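Q: My labmate handed me this sequence with no annotations at all. I'd like to see what the chain might look like in three dimensions before we decide whether it's worth expressing. Could you predict it?
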Amino acid sequence: METVQSIKQRFELIGNDPTFNRAIEKALQVAPTDISVLVTGESGVGKESIPRIIHSQSFRKHAKYIAVNCGAIPEGTIDSELFGHEKGAFTGATQTRSGYFEVADGGTIFLDEVGELPLPTQVRLLRVLENGEFLKVGSSNTQKTDVRIVAATNVNMFTAIEKGKFREDLYYRLSTVEIELPPLRKRKDDIHLLFRKFASDFANKYKMPTLRLDDNAVSLLTNYRWSGNIRQLRNIAEQISVLEKDRNITGPVLKNYLPDAGSNLPAVIKDKKTNDSEFANEREILYKVLFDMKNDLNDLKKLTNELMNSGNAMDVQEKQQGLINRIYGNDNNDGDTDDYEDVIDQAYEVSQEEHYNKPVATTTSPTEPVADRYDFAQEVEEEESLSLVEKEIELIKKSLERHEGRRKAASEDLGISERTLYRKIKQYDL
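A: Here is what I predict for the chain of 430 residues:
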């Protein structure tokens, strides 16, 4: 088995970061086995080099090695690409086609961006991993394949599993061994080495002197965030090699090629202030809504008291409709009005109970005994309460008889909602 250093030279891998070296060591350790490997890391960190190392050091190195970008194949054709199809299986299938798993039998398949696979394809892939069997599209004949699968992804697989975009059982099948490649910003000592390598390559390619960075440029280069990782660094080196006539690159010159260079900290502070401001605005809106609800509730209580104490039903009804329009707007639908009427009816019932359970002030002579005054008030209260309940029951019964038990018609006749009528029927056991 080759050493880490020899593998770096063979595959032109630059860097001495301990985590990067550890990833290569793990690849060398699992290569002689036949277990599945999942390579993780951000986009542009060089995940495609690990499967090539594994294949070159395995007993399958003389068989085929096929790299498949799962995110670049349309969902409607990916099953055909991976597993093949029979003639006539779908429109345009003019002949039988062998898929990658059939062509790479005995070799290695690298599934790049495996997190982009559609769920039906994930089921097919799981079957291949479990027992090496697959079906061509449009075929009922099971075929066998002996393929080693190495997958890679730049998405958080646990998040994808929680959202239902990736099967949990397939994840554990793929990640028997997981190799993570660190982002370039965590390999600061390797950034300048990589830039020098790219600058040398482009100098030879375009037949021009090699670029040189001064100390300020080196400092700026190593402290930049590199969200695109090695791919972004390579593109920057190529741009500068082509566009700059002066081969000695200073910090200000390099800064022109780095998007938002040196603005990381202010951006974070600005975002934080923006979030605090948005939170304050949302809090003010919430307070306003609560105050409006409180005012509406006070108006509702006032309306209920007027309903109890006023004899003018039409006036109370107009105020009720005005309150409904103010809360819901003039374009409120019937469902909202009925709901609000239910609230008023419930408030009416509660206020009615409170009203008939408290002493009623009556006009008596100053010489009348106190006990007699209270007894008279109690008798009036009981008679009035009994009379109102009886009248309500009588009206409900008459309305139901008139409309042959149809609650909707009866509720319209009584001027209340159907749900309120139903509640009163249950209350009075009618």
